[in-house]
Amino acid sequence: MSTAPSPRATAAVERYYRRHAGIYDLTRWSFLFGRRGIIEALPADLHPASILEVGCGTGVNLVRLGRRFPTARITGLDASARMLGRAARRLARLDVRPRLLHRPYLRPEGPSGGFDLILFSYALSMFNPGRDDALDHALEDLAPRGLVAVVDFEHSASPLFRRWMRLNHVRMEGDLRPALQQRFRPLLADSRPAYAGLWRYLMFLGGRP
Predict the structure, then answer these.
(1) Which residues in the chain belong to E strands, given as ranges?
(2) How far is Cα 206 from Cα 67, in angstroms, rounded to an integer?
């Protein structure tokens, strides 16, 4: 059964990021841990020809991916026009310009042969609903020897904190890792604490089963 986000849910997230886009990079560094680390954790012998970042936001990871893989064809996908506008301004300084697509991840986006690397950085926890569909699309989009890379909120033992995060469209109920392991063969599945264990975040690398 499809769990694709409704137009109403998509519009709510668009409104949220319309308000937050201007302060996103100034504030999110303090709790979006592991964004640099997940790219550094990619195998040294990975040489992707095509890369997709789902939920690319303001383009921070696209810059890092462009620097590490300067010959790759990079696509950034996001549902927020305001966030993509900031990404476009940031990326204007790069010699290699990623392709930016303004839409939710509602269907596979892959080129012939699929993407060699698909990155979700603090995106899946905001697909409520839509996460499982996004993972199914990623499995279909992934090249035979490709990798999916995920860094995201995993769980908090505090019901109050989880409730507050839900007000910010974030789900962290501890079910992300099982959903990934059902679809991808794990190469890395590392759960790390943040702020003395107030929550945990997940770093995951996986290939086709």
Answers:
(1) 50-54, 73-78, 99-102, 115-121, 142-155, 185-194, 199-207
(2) 22
What is the model's pTM? 0.89
Q: How confident is the model at residue 99 (pLDDT cuts 50, 70, 90)?
A: very high
Residue type, 33: F
The phi, psi pair for 2, rounded to 5°, reads -70, 140
Tell me the residue type at 185.
R
Phi, psi for residue 129 in degrees, rounded to 5? -80, -175
- Give me 209's structure tokens: 């089963």
Separation of alpha carbons 37 and 113, rounded Å: 27
For residue 19, give both structure tokens: 């308000």
Is the bond into 193 cis (omega within 30 degrees of 0)? no
**37 touches 203 (CB < 8 A):** yes
What CATH class is the domain 7-207? alpha beta
Q: What is the pLDDT of residue 92?
A: 86
Ordered by start, the domain boundaries in the chain are: 7-207
β-strand pairing of 99-102 with 115-121:
unpaired
Q: How many CA atoms lie within 13 A of 166 on its CB side?
A: 12
